């Protein structure tokens, strides 16, 4: 009996360790199951590949285009957070968008810094303390940049000063599905 309990505890610990997010990462457990997995892609870079210089602070600092489909039923809005979990001081947020209308499926290249998006939605405050996108500019080494798209069952009551922490707090209990795209 004692060895069975010990084995069960060790198994649970192993599962929890293996399922842990990457250092500095964020895990959002979907509230509901989507009938098919929402997919996030970009024509600017392939998943797991290098993000071209034109989308970085070393280049033109343009927002990359992003496209998604297979949206879960009941979606009322989307939120997007681009984060670098490999930053020396902990997770660094490069881009925050929220209240993207439920009918939008594309974020075009080069959105700019305006808080209000032309198709609806709002850009929030990144870790540079600026509204809009600021691309990669790692101080050293190779970093991973996660573009996390959330399908939500609400339109969160947030303003353009919203940080990633405030957005993630507002999303709790409202995430229908999350899709991610990682570039380096």
Topology:
Layout: H1 2-18, E1 39-41, E2 66-69, E3 77-84, E4 92-101, E5 106-107, E6 122-123, E7 145-152, H2 164-171, E8 175-183
Q: Which superfamily, in CATH terms, is the homologous superfamily?
A: PEBP-like
In the residues, how many domains can be counted?
Answer: 1
Task: Tell me the name of the CATH class.
Answer: Alpha Beta
Please list the strands of the largest sheet in the order they lie side by side. 6-4-3-7-8
Taking all Cα atoms into account, the compactness measure Rg is 18 Å
- Helicity level: 10-25%
Q: Please tally the β strands and state the result.
A: 8
Mean pLDDT: 85
Low-confidence stretches: 1-35
Helix/strand order: HEEEEEEEHE
User: What is the overall shape?
Assistant: globular
Beginning-to-end CA distance, first to last residue: 49 Å
Structural class designation: alpha+beta
CATH topology: Phosphatidylethanolamine-binding Protein
Task: Specify the biggest β-sheet.
Answer: 5 strands, antiparallel
CATH architecture: Alpha-Beta Complex
Oligomer: single chain
Question: What's the total helix number?
Answer: 2
């Amino acid at each position: 009996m004692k060895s069975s309990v010990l084995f069960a505890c060790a198994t649970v610990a192993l599962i929890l360790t293996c399922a842990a997010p990457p250092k500095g990462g964020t895990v959002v457990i979907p509230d509901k199951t989507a009938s098919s997995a929402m997919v996030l892609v970009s024509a600017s870079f392939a998943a797991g590949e290098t993000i071209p210089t034109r989308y970085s602070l070393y280049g033109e600092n343009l927002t990359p285009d992003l496209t998604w489909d297979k949206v879960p039923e009941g979606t009322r809005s989307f939120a997007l957070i681009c984060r670098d979990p490999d930053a020396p001081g902990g997770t660094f947020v490069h881009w925050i968008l929220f209240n993207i209308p439920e009918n939008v499926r594309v974020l075009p290249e080069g959105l700019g810094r305006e808080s209000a998006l032309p198709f609806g939605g709002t850009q929030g405050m990144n870790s540079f303390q600026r509204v809009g996108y600021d691309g990669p500019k790692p101080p050293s080494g190779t970093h991973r940049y996660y573009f996390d798209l959330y399908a939500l069952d609400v339109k969160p009551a947030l303003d353009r000063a919203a940080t990633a922490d405030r957005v993630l707090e507002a999303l709790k209990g409202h995430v229908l599905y999350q899709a991610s795209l990682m570039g380096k």
